[in-house]
Specification:
By secondary structure, the chain is mainly beta. It has one domain. The chain has one helix and 14 strands; from the N terminus they run H-E-E-E-E-E-E-E-E-E-E-E-E-E-E. Strand 4 and strand 5 form a beta hairpin.
């Protein structure tokens, strides 16, 4: 990679979400002092769709806490072939889908329905038919559970700053015309 391409890539990567993206922040309160907060971004064109799904996101991260102390995090840059990754956001409601007839497993953020696949040292969240809950270090945190149909809103966050590993890299380098 020549110096110009490196500078362009660094500038694009530093901005996080693209200019046409819209960002949301969210906060989830679980039981017994467990909570998580995070953010996501996607192309604002998706606002006209009934649902925004995991594949539509350009940025995403979650950070968990227990009684105010950090316990774990997960970001889109950590996504691998073995990651459980399902997200269903309802733009018209500014909320994540929760358990119901239309959405039996609407959220699985680095966590499967059994709550054990967030991996050693990992962190995850899901909403299924049993509960909304967290996974930490490959273990379901039963103490974090709240009812599966409890609303989970999100808030527009135009000034959201994403951690470096939260956003997918731009696919622009292949289209760059560099000087010879």
């Amino acid at each position: 990679m020549n110096a110009l391409a490196g500078l362009v890539f660094a500038a694009l990567a530093a901005t996080g979400a693209a200019a046409e993206d819209i960002a949301y922040s969210f906060h989830w309160d679980g039981a017994n002092g467990y909570e998580q907060h995070g953010g996501m971004a996607f192309d604002e064109a998706f606002l006209s769709q009934p649902e925004v799904n995991a594949r539509d996101l350009s940025c995403f991260f979650i950070e968990g806490r227990k009684d105010g102390a950090p316990i774990g995090r997960w970001a889109l840059g950590m996504l691998s072939e073995t990651t459980t990754w399902t997200l269903t956001f309802l733009p018209a409601r500014e909320a994540f889908a929760v358990y119901g007839a239309q959405h039996p497993m609407p959220q699985a953020w680095n966590m499967d329905g059994d709550g054990v696949d967030c991996g050693k040292g990992g962190f995850g969240f899901n909403i299924g038919n049993a509960a909304q809950d967290l996974c930490l270090d490959g273990q379901l945190l039963l103490a974090s559970q709240v009812p599966p149909d409890r609303p989970f809103p999100a808030t527009l966050a135009p000034d959201m700053r994403f951690p470096p590993d939260a956003c997918l890299g731009p696919d622009l380098l292949s289209a760059l015309e560099l000087p010879r």
